Amino acid sequence: MNFKIKRVFAVVMRHLLLMKNPFELTSHLYWVLMDVVIFGFLVQSMNRQGDNSLNVATICILTNLAVCYVFARGAVSLASTLLKDLSDLSFVGLMATPITTAEWIASQIIVAAVSSGISFLMGFVCIGIFFRFNVFSSGLVLIPAIISLLISSWTLGIFMLSLVIIFGKKSSSSIHTVPWLFLPFSGVFYSVSILPTYCQKIASWLPMFHIFDGLTQYIKNGQSITFALLKSMGLNLIYFTVAITLFMIMFKRRKNIGLTRLELES
Amino acid sequence: MQIHPLEVKNLTKTFHSEKFLIQNKKSVFTAVNDISFILKKGEFLGFLGPNGAGKTTTIQMLLNLLTPTSGSIQFFGKDPLKDRSVMQDISYASGYMKLPSSLTVRQALLMYGMLYNMNMSILKDKIDLFLNLFNLKHLSQRKVTTLSAGQTTAVLLARAFLVDPKIVLLDEPTAALDPESACRIRDFIKTENKKNGVSILFTSHNMPEVAELCDRILVLKDGKIVADNTPEYLASTVSITHVQLIIGDGMKRTIAYALENKLEHKVDDRHIEIKIDEHKISELLSGLAAKNVSYTQISIEKPTLEDYFLTLVKNR
Q1: Which residues does chain A have with pLDDT short of 70?
Q2: B274 phi and psi angles, rounded to 5 deg
Q3: Residue B24, C-beta contacts closer than 8 angstroms, at least 6 positions apart
Q4: How far apart are CA A251 and CA A102, in angstroms?
Q5: DSSP SS3 for A21
Q6: Is B117 within 8 Å of A260 when comparing Cβ atoms?
Q7: Residue B277 has pLDDT above 90, yes or no
Q8: How far is A47 from A88, CA to CA, in rounded Å?
């Protein structure tokens, strides 16, 4: 198989060097900080106990918020890397090298994972500073949850890559909003049981819902998260396969028109 | 059967109008129409044609950036659509390409070498060598976005030859260079071609450059190959000559004669250059004599590749 790790790292290196930009890092920090402060303190004030200790609802929200950015940031980052290459007019130059589509996608996934990791770290630090709470106090259960959310983020990211392949640079404003479409159904901030029945049905098809709901149940009632994890992983596997297949079809169609045109289209 | 570095057979590309990648089969435009050619080992092959002739479309298909409608492309007997590893021996540079922003010159070269899976220690040594060779050493830590167009072209060319390619596709590589840099780059490309046997497919609108570098030229017009020969032969197929005269007396009468006979001409002080069919030179000279024009010097230049190209464009 013609898969070379060095080629993958060449592309990863290029995007990691882009991330060194202070504005890029600030954008990672800003939204995490805002969400942690606003939603964390909102829920704490609504469920205030006599002392200043954190109530269970706040712990659930903070834990969910910390891992929620693994999903959202990773998905946006995966599609943004292609948009950056298109804006730079360097995508055609990259595709004219021996790099294969599989190597290129692998590099996008690694960059997205790094981006997710930075956002999680930011969330972890912010929650530690503002609420004196360690999100890992729930235990190592967070690790498989994060892995499942990472896979969900790659799936959505690859789906968004297809959108960029179809619509080109015009899609740049919308790809930043797509992950947030799924959050109302994912149970990050509230229990999905308060939603109308049809919304609950939609939620049950989302791998993220099973993770956030599973984490909430685990923190509140000590209920095992294994079944939720399995459901989430199963759905991830199906959606990841669909996303990759869709991308390959769209990439092939785009090559019929020309990658150069994709780069030059405004 | 002999295996060539590049063999193109019956290559055709038809474009349809499309919306959201769904093509409308009714609306068709054929950019490349059933072309076949071979690039031999160590050959310097020119690819000429007016704008819209299909040169860039062909290069995009060779690089697998665009899928052909029909026909085949084989590098060293292998189809790059089926075996991507063959791209390891092919590199590309264009005067209109950009380098990835945020990288320094050295990082851009390092990234490119890694994309060709080069050994890291060899790659680092070669980067130093090429930075010196292309006079880029002092720019090695500069961001590529701060380079001038000429410096960017030099980095792109250094990048193309850094990876020990067997075939290099060069699309107007000297378009953004000043004459001195263009000359240095041409010498480098010639050396790589002759000394290391690199096969080169070269497009340029700079005809003297094409005539100087290329062993053979393919001429594309409306998506078809209309000529395949040496630069000298192609130039000889045109009967246009350049008659150079230093006029002693009668410059105004000479210009009037040229205008009357609709002859293309250029005047510089006492010097006039008249473009004329070689069969009509005697007619020109007797016409000037009839107008009492005296000249102190006359020279007749053979037709050039540029004349061939201009004739081709005029006959569209």
Answers
A1: 1, 49-53, 266
A2: -115, 130
A3: B16, B17, B18
A4: 12
A5: coil
A6: no
A7: no
A8: 49
Contacts of A225 (CB under 8 A, 6+ apart): A141, A144, A145, A214, A215, A217, A218
Minimum Cα–Cα distance from B81: chain A residue:
A100
Query: Look-up: residue for tokens 């009509």?
Result: B280
| Ramachandran class of B145: left when φ > 0, alpha when ψ lies in -120 to 50, beta otherwise | alpha
Residue A87, amino acid: S
Q: What confidence score (pLDDT) does residue A204 get?
A: 96
Q: Which candidate from A14, A165, A250 shows the least CB-CB separation from B111? A: A14
pLDDT at residue B108 greater than cutoff 60: yes
- Residues in chain A with CB shorter than 8 Å from the CB of B114 are 6-7, 9-10, 13
Looking at this predicted complex, what is its ipTM?
Answer: 0.89
Hey, is B217 helix, strand or coil?
A: strand
Residue tagged 């070379």 (tokens): A4
Angle at B249 between CA B244 and CA B254, to 5 degrees: 55
Reported as a single tens digit per residue, the pLDDT across B179-200 is 887 888 888 899 989 998 999 9
A178: closest CA of chain B, how far (Å): 19
A17 to chain B, any CB pair closer than 8 A? The answer is yes
pLDDT-derived band of residue B243, with 50, 70 and 90 as boundaries?
A: very high
Q: Name the strands in the sheet holding B70-75, side by side, starting at the edge strand that comes first in the sequence.
A: B22-39, B6-19, B70-75
Residue B4 DSSP code: P
Q: What is the DSSP letter of B228?
A: E
A256:B67 CB<8 A: yes
Question: Which residue is it, tokens 């991308």?
Answer: A247
Beta bridge partners of B22: B19
